[in-house]
Write a structure and sequence with these properties.
Helix content is 35%, strand content 19%. The protein has 187 residues and is α+β, with helices and mostly antiparallel strands. It has one domain: Trafficking protein particle complex subunit 3 (Muramoyl-pentapeptide Carboxypeptidase, domain 2, 2-Layer Sandwich). It holds the Pfam family V4R. InterPro entries: NO_sig/Golgi_transp_ligand-bd, V4R. It comes from Candidatus Nitrososphaera evergladensis SR1.
Length: 187
Amino acid sequence: MSGGSTDPASIGSGENPFYHFSQKTKVIEDSAFGCRAILVNERFWNKIRSSILDLLKDAGPLVMYELGLEYGFDMGFQGKAKSKTRGNDIDFFTYYVLMSGWGRFEVSELKLKDNAPPRKATVKVHDSFFAKAAKSETGNPSCFFLSGLLAGMAEGTFSTGYNCLETKCLACGDDYCEFVLTRRPGD
């Protein structure tokens, strides 16, 4: 992540460049995406996640992935307009998710090469909100929403399709969550 105003160390404690409480409207606003925001704690997220997985059984992980994919695509598409240059897209997103409380994203190899989208990238998520909210009951990685979100963000940013597979998960006892993004064949 580059220094300057997008560097977490450069802002004072308690300040967040994306979220603020509006005295005029009396709501929390997300200035990055121009919409209202809410705070969600681990208990709330875990109840939503476990209810979806319980109600939809085997289809639950797919539904969670698809929800993340749709939202991630919108984030990627809208967010790339927020960064001044194409190379700063990743810096914008890693800072936005950090300030949103989702965790610290460490992205490798997700840069344009010869103006072509990357074929593969690895994303490590340290202190993931989504993984810490619930332990895996199966011993398998379980950040379905976050997997979809990352695939969608890459697709929205680079205008080409991506798959995302979680290979390590904090909820399974790993030190961090790790995701491998790969460009879909034909894209």
